[in-house]
Design goal:
By secondary structure, the protein is of the alpha+beta class. The protein contains 13 helices and 15 strands. The chain folds into 2 domains: about 280 residues, archaeoglobus fulgidus dsm 4304 fold (2-Layer Sandwich), CATH 3.30.2170; about 100 residues, no CATH class. Strand 12 and strand 13 form a beta hairpin.
C-alpha cells in the first residue's frame, strides 16, 4: 500500500512503474498461469442438439394475473468520522396486474394515464437495517441490534397478517396434513451452542424460543442464520444481497399461504415472476430445501406457475454468446456437464451437481419466437435433476414460457414488462435516493 497525503503538505506516494518485471520473470508465477483455464469462447461452443426442445404454444392459456417480485437496497453513511456508522435501506415490491388490462392497453392507439395506473398496483415493503456501528437503545451489541431489527420487520402487521406467521407456516410445513414437530437450528446466536431443536409446540405467542443452554431468547428469524455473518466491528454489509433474495422469496411464500387459506384455485391463474434465480444464498441457503418441498407440494396437490429470471451474470453472458446458435422458440436446459464445460470453469462432479445446496430449480436458456433471450430458473422436484434435466422435469413450462413471450418489453435488451416496471417502482438509485436517505437518517438518529 502506498502512502497518501493526509494534510496536503507532502505528496502522495505512487506505485512503482518497474516492479512488474519481477513478477513476469518469476518461474512459479509463469508455471501457475500455464495451468489455468478460461471459459470457452462462443466459437468453441457446440450446442448438444439432443438437449434442446421446442415450446408448445397449442394449449390454452389459463394465466389471468401476473405477480412480479423485486427488491433493492442502498447503504448510506450516517457518521463518516471514526468510528464510522452505516445504515442500509431496503425496499421490496410485489407488482400485480391482470393479463386482460395489459392486452387492452396494447391494443389502444393512445394510452390514457388511468389505464397505466391499472398496471402500477404495487405493494411496497420497507426496511431500515443497521449495517455498521449502529446499536438499538434496547440492545447491548450490534449483532443483537441486527437480529431484533430483522425480527421486528417480520413481526410488523401487513393486512391483518405478518411474515412471522408465514415463516412459522413455512418452517414447520404447516401446509402438510402432518406438520413437522421440530426445526434444527444450526447454533444459538447468544451462546453458540450447536444443533438447537426448535419445537413447534413450544413457540411463544411472540414467536420466540428459549435456548436450553443459556436461556436467552431465540427469534424465529434466527433460522436464517444471518447473525452468523454479522461482525461486531465489520458490521453486516456483506449480508444485504442475501437478505434481499430471502425477503423476495418470503413474499412469494406469503402470497401462496394467503391463496391456500382463501381460494386455492387462484394458483391455476397466477404466474409469479421473481427477479433473479430461484435460490437462497450464503447463510440463508438452508431455506432452499424447504422451498423445494413447498413447490413439490403445490405441484402435486394444487398448481404452481413460478419462474425466476436473471438480468446479469455469467449465465446471461453465455446466453448472449450462443443466441445465434439457438432456434426460435427453443429451450436449452442447462445440465451439470454443460455448465462446467462452457460457463463455469471447473470439472463436473455427478455427486455434487451445480448449486444443489442453494437452488430449488434448474436453469434454462429460452429463445423466444421474436429472438429475445432469457435465462430462467423453474422449480424442479429433485436437486439431482440438474445432472440431466428434461422437459418433463419442468412443471407447466410451456404455459410459463408462452406468457413470458407475451410480456416482452422493448425498453431494454431482453426485458420483461413486469420486471422492468417493478424495478422502476422499488429500486433505490445512488443519486439522488442514497443522498436523500443519508440526510433523512442523519436528521432522525440522535
Amino acid at each position: 500500500m502506498s502512502y497518501s497525503s493526509k494534510y496536503g503538505r507532502r505528496p502522495n506516494e505512487y506505485a512503482s512503474k518497474s516492479s512488474h518485471g519481477y513478477i513476469i520473470q518469476d518461474g512459479e508465477v509463469s508455471d501457475f498461469l500455464t495451468k489455468c483455464n478460461l471459459p470457452k469462447s462462443s466459437k468453441e461452443i457446440e450446442l448438444p442438439s439432443n438437449l434442446c426442445f421446442k415450446v408448445d404454444d397449442s394449449s390454452l392459456n389459463p394465466i389471468k394475473h401476473i405477480v412480479a417480485i423485486d427488491g433493492g437496497y442502498t447503504e448510506v453513511s450516517v457518521k463518516k468520522d471514526f468510528p464510522s456508522s452505516t445504515l442500509t435501506f431496503f425496499q421490496f415490491g410485489a407488482l400485480v396486474f391482470s393479463i386482460s388490462d395489459l392486452k387492452d392497453i396494447s391494443e389502444k392507439s393512445f394510452i390514457d394515464p388511468e389505464d397505466i395506473s391499472k398496471l402500477n398496483h404495487i405493494q411496497r415493503i420497507k426496511l431500515a437495517l443497521p449495517s455498521k456501528n449502529i446499536i438499538l437503545k434496547s440492545c447491548t451489541s450490534f449483532r443483537d441490534s441486527f437480529r431484533e431489527t430483522l425480527f421486528n420487520f417480520f413481526a410488523a402487521q401487513k393486512d391483518k397478517n405478518n411474515y412471522l406467521e408465514t415463516l412459522k407456516w413455512f418452517i414447520f410445513q404447516e401446509y402438510l396434513p402432518k406438520p413437522a414437530d421440530f426445526y434444527d437450528l444450526a447454533s444459538c446466536p447468544s451462546c453458540g451452542q450447536g444443533n438447537i431443536g426448535l419445537e413447534r409446540k413450544s413457540i411463544g405467542k411472540d414467536f420466540t424460543f428459549k435456548c436450553p443452554i443459556c436461556d436467552k431468547a431465540i427469534f424465529l428469524t434466527d433460522v436464517f442464520r444471518l447473525h452468523e455473518a454479522v461482525d461486531e466491528e465489520l458490521g453486516a454489509g456483506g449480508v444485504s444481497g442475501y437478505l434481499t433474495t430471502l425477503v423476495e422469496q418470503i413474499i412469494i411464500v406469503d402470497l401462496v399461504r394467503v391463496i391456500l387459506n382463501t381460494k386455492p384455485s387462484l394458483l391455476d391463474e397466477i404466474l409469479i415472476i421473481k427477479d433473479g434465480p430461484l435460490a437462497f444464498f450464503g447463510q440463508t441457503a438452508n431455506m432452499h430445501r424447504l422451498m423445494r418441498e413447498l413447490s413439490n407440494f403445490l405441484i402435486s396437490n394444487h398448481n404452481l406457475f413460478l419462474i425466476g429470471l436473471e438480468k446479469s451474470g455469467a449465465f446471461v453472458e453465455h446466453a448472449s454468446a450462443i443466441a445465434d446458435k439457438l432456434e426460435l422458440g427453443s429451450v436449452l436446459p442447462l445440465n451439470n456437464d454443460y455448465i462446467y464445460h462452457y460457463i463455469i470453469p471447473g470439472k463436473a462432479d455427478p455427486a455434487n451437481p451445480y448449486a444443489r445446496s442453494s437452488y430449488y430449480g434448474a436453469k434454462i436458456i429460452f429463445k423466444s419466437r421474436d429472438g429475445k433471450i432469457y435465462v430462467a430458473t423453474l422449480p424442479t422436484s429433485d436437486a439431482n435433476i440438474i445432472l440431466n434435466p428434461k422437459k418433463s422435469d419442468f412443471h407447466n413450462i410451456d404455459i410459463i414460457l408462452n406468457n413470458i413471450e407475451k410480456l416482452k418489453c422493448d425498453m431494454y435488451d431482453n426485458a420483461l414488462f413486469p420486471v422492468a416496471l417493478a424495478n422502476k417502482l422499488v429500486s433505490l438509485a445512488d443519486h439522488p435516493s442514497a443522498h436523500i436517505l443519508e440526510k433523512f437518517a442523519k436528521q432522525n438518529i440522535r
